[in-house]
């Protein structure tokens, strides 16, 4: 089927991309502010340990982790904690606290939040964040910042913490949760985690696997298994790849894996990206036997030639589960020695692998440099990534990374002229770590090449001046 239909759709999209290019020229990104700052605005001198953060759709809440001891008062644990920056009221609050308000004594990190900022999940080794942590291991936690549901976050007595790396019996287990970035749906109900512990009857691989905890259903289900229920024959996720992402509804989960048996129709070898449809029969009940599928995401060069992902793979899933931003390396790709960025339309990938690579993304030095850390906005319109490659932007030097954005027009915008506008030889590297739903807000981590901290190291929020999505409110 469908080759003609497919060609028409490709053409339609190509025309759409071309038509938008004039708009891209007028797009501007403005740096708004440093995020890892004290309530009064003084930036910490402590460099971030993990370039990970979340930003709410309204741009107000930024959740991140930091080892800085000077972001809030009385942080004396000498450990990483999870913080939230309130950009509207210039507040900074620590979230990784025990029920009595005292600080955790062991580290908390890998924080991610829902689009409204209400739910925050993170990993912590602290054993006293909740009352039912029995395992002396790190676990996955979920903080509800508005457990009384009145719309006001972080009120005294109006928050609740729970441990979500539980087995289906509702108990903790020996190995706890592995330290990876978890994903949660927009309601904070479905939370993924990774563990070495076999929590499902068919998990006999002795490897880490991806599980999902459904809080309402009080179930824990194995995701890194094939459609017919065979557990992966190697680790999921890959140790170095971004581990897991989940769609807004919780239905689709993407994860990396080194297993070769997760999709018999597309066996492949080595690292792969897989998409688990938790409700493939569409009856609204996830994780039913016979009602869930797993497929390998195939990357294709323009013209349709299917390519393996390669040794390097990173990805990000849009909120509706349709779009995926992918960084993949393969010798037959547009950038033979490096990694390429793909905007992959999963909705079209029904019969043939289809990938769109903007032409500009193949310019520059094809024998060096890499593209990595792709993020796609939850609405799918804005794609951002980090690159050391020269995309024909004047002054882009070598060895330093910049953040590039593509907003559905096929044209790249380089945004990291800031906060050091002088030149590319500013000694700084940049990584995009979060995008809001319509891509209006972006969190970027900035690190100096050396090991010493400087005032320019940390998390920054950038804001797009012009956005094409309706309903954008520029003020946080
Ligand atoms: Ca601390
Ligand atoms: Ca624990
Ligand atoms: Ca409240
Ligand atoms: Ca396992």
Please give the radius of gyration in angstroms: 22 Å
Outline the low-pLDDT stretches. Answer: 1-26, 350-367, 418-425, 468-476
Question: Which strands sit side by side, in order, in the main sheet?
Answer: 1-29-28-27
How many DSSP-defined strands? 29
Span between termini: 47 Å
Structural class: mainly beta
Q: Mean pLDDT, rounded to whole units?
A: 81
Bound ligands: calcium ion
The percent of residues in helical segments reads under 10%
Q: What is the makeup of the main sheet?
A: 4 strands, antiparallel
Tell me what you see in this structure.
This is WD40-like Beta Propeller Repeat. The protein is mostly beta strands. It has a domain at 1-34 and 309-476. Helix content is 5%, strand content 31%. The protein has helices at residues 3-19, 21-25, and strands spanning 29-34, 53-55, 61-66, 81-86, 91-94, 108-113, 119-124, 139-144, 160-163, 190-195, 209-214, 219-222, 244-246, 252-257, 272-277, 293-296, 299-300, 306-307, 313-317, 323-329, 339-345, 355-356, 371-376, 383-387, 402-406, 412-414, 428-435, 441-448, 458-464. The protein has a 4-stranded antiparallel sheet with strand order 1-29-28-27, with no helix packed on it. A 4-stranded antiparallel sheet has the order 2-3-4-5, with no helix packed on it. A 4-stranded antiparallel sheet has the order 6-7-8-9, with no helix packed on it. Strand 19 and strand 20 form a beta hairpin. The chain is globular. One calcium ion is lined by residues 127, 133, 135, 137, 139, 176.
